[in-house]
What does this fold into?
Amino acid sequence: INPVAKLAAATVIGATLLTSIDRVSSSVALALELALIAVAGVPIGRIAVRCWPLVVAAALAGLTILLYGRPSGEIYARVLFAEISDGSIELAIATMLRVLAIALPAVILFLTVDPTDLADGLAQVLRLPARFVLGALGGMRLVGLFVDDWRSLELARRARGVADRGRLRRFAGMAFALLVLSVRRGSKLATAMEARAFGSPIRRTWARQSTIGRADVALVVTAVLIATAAVGAAVVTGEWNPVFVA
It folds into this structure.
């Protein structure tokens, strides 16, 4: 699947679910997404490793809405500025479902995306400026070095005996050092790319062609069907709650 098609599919579902806060549309979309993931045969262990931050984020978002959402109906508890009521409970459930339904397809679809393939698609299919695409690709390729740099900084500080206490101060110092290293490396990369004419205004050629095929179209159509089914179910059940009201 072309990465551009994956991006389009995730955008269609996400943009549609952002238009309403209700339990029905998010539940239908999430159920259909999970069914497609099961059919696709994606390993459950791999999904769990990648999606646990998503579950935590959804739970925290729901907790915030539960405590500080707009109260309505019966109020069950009240502590300072926090109130738990029928309205906040319903809104918290809808928020958690919406976060999961929006983020899950993006996480799953981009599990196997190669940055170079994505850059090829953005430049050749979406016709984005080559200078911007190649600069972003160069930056993405350096992201993996952050972990190695952080580990090297930590080992160096331990060797000098300055990493045994003061965790907050150590974290701030290492973060600043990593920032300096990143800026220096980015400057060197930019100079190297300019020297190789990556910033030339001449129309570029590409080593690998990025095209849209039947599988890509099928993926986008599937995303449209999921979004349509979610909205249709919410409208039919009377749960449709649009965020933007004229």
Summary: The helical segments are 3-17, 23-40, 44-68, 86-109, 115-124, 130-159, 167-195, 214-237. The two ends are 38 Å apart (CA to CA). The chain is about 70% helix and 5% strand.
